[in-house]
Write a structure and sequence with these properties.
Distance between the termini: 83 Å
Largest sheet: none
Protein name: BrnA antitoxin family protein
Structural class: mainly alpha
Pfam families: BrnA_antitoxin
InterPro entries: BrnA_antitoxin
Oligomer: single chain
Radius of gyration: 28 Å
Strand content: under 5%
């Protein structure tokens, strides 16, 4: 009994299989904003090193200090 060849015998079929269109991933669901007041969101933000060092120099709680500074800025702006 002969074993099947390791390579496809039809080069056209092999080329078609290699260049099949890629399925697009499903779109991410639209996230509704939280309805509860003062709920914190987990986000990723890029901050300059000098700014980060300033808020981290007093130790733990630096994220709260950044949040407080942003709240003060919003209050002063509006």
């Amino acid at each position: 009994m002969a074993t099947p060849p390791r390579r496809p015998t039809n080069p056209f079929a092999a080329a078609e299989a290699a260049f099949k269109p890629v399925k697009k991933p499903a779109a991410a669901p639209i996230r509704e904003p939280s309805t509860a007041p003062n709920v914190r969101e987990l986000v990723s933000v890029r901050i300059d090193r000098a700014v980060l060092d300033h808020f981290q120099e007093d130790g733990p709680g630096w994220q709260d200090r950044i949040n407080d500074a942003l709240r003060q800025w919003l209050a002063a702006k509006g």
